[in-house]
């Protein structure tokens, strides 16, 4: 099964996407994680992407489209993939459709996760991530057992550079302007589901499981 998860910043795509992908036996492909890895490794793409990400803007389409094509056609994606954070605008969705047709692939589920802005802000402002293994925590909703260190590997926890309030506001603006139009693009499509992602992690996961079961 190939799945697209989309929705606003902080709605829980990363938290739910990795768990859902594991359950389905497919690989999670998180565009933001791919870009952050490229920034960390200081690749040419990473250096190009950094300024856009720090400012809360979208990285140019030609950069992300090439990265996604490489990833969805890699051998470990042969059983299926879950896209988190791609596509993020209509031109990217059109490019994905062309790419899928070219490689004989199909998307079985497109799931839109939604929650009110007040909840998104709370989630983003409290997010903590492990520097070593990337596991995500939240200061209030899922705090680490020991302050500042990861429950899974003991690594140091940090706050993402783009989780500052001013950058969050910019990201929400970009979402409203560029990503929300994807709702019109996908809402009539076969396999489209909209779920309420404002509940706790277990409730949202249950709604996602129901959506993938159809
Ligand atoms: P990206 O990393 O994709 O950021 P995003 O879409 O803004 O989404 P987030 O990762 O912030 O949130 P999430 O929905 O995954 O929430 P999470 O599960 O972590 O992209 C970053 C940047 O990269 C972009 O701004 C752009 O510059 C660039 N980029 C990426 N894709 C691109 C593309 N296609 N084109 C161009 N540029 C691109 O949850 C957030 C917090 O809430 C966590 O602390 C979590 O523990 C907590 N939480 C989650 N669910 C719940 C719940 N139900 N209850 C309580 N707490 C919860």
Describe the main β-sheet briefly. 5 strands, parallel
- Please state the structural category: alpha/beta
Fourth-level CATH superfamily: P-loop containing nucleotide triphosphate hydrolases
Order of helices and strands: EHEHHHEHEHEEEHHEH
Gyration radius (Cα, Å) is 17 Å
Keywords:
single chain, alpha/beta, Rossmann fold, five-stranded parallel β-sheet, three-stranded antiparallel β-sheet, 47% helix, binds BIS(adenosine)-5'-pentaphosphate
Characterise this structure:
There is one protein chain. The protein has 214 residues and is α/β, with parallel strands linked by helices. The model has no long low-confidence stretch (mean pLDDT 96). It contains nine helices and eight strands. Strand 5 (127-130) and strand 6 form a beta hairpin. The chain has a single domain (2-116, 170-213), classed as Rossmann fold (3-Layer(aba) Sandwich), CATH 3.40.50.300. The protein has a five-stranded parallel sheet with strand order 2-3-1-4-8, sandwiched between helices. Strands 6-5-7 form a three-stranded antiparallel sheet. It is globular and about 45 Å long. It has helices spanning 13-24, 31-40, 44-54, 61-72, 90-102, 117-125, 165-179, 182-186, 201-213; strands at 3-6, 27-30, 81-84, 109-114, 127-130, 136-138, 157-158, 192-196. BIS(adenosine)-5'-pentaphosphate (AP5) binds next to helix 1, helix 2, helix 3, helix 6 and strand 6.
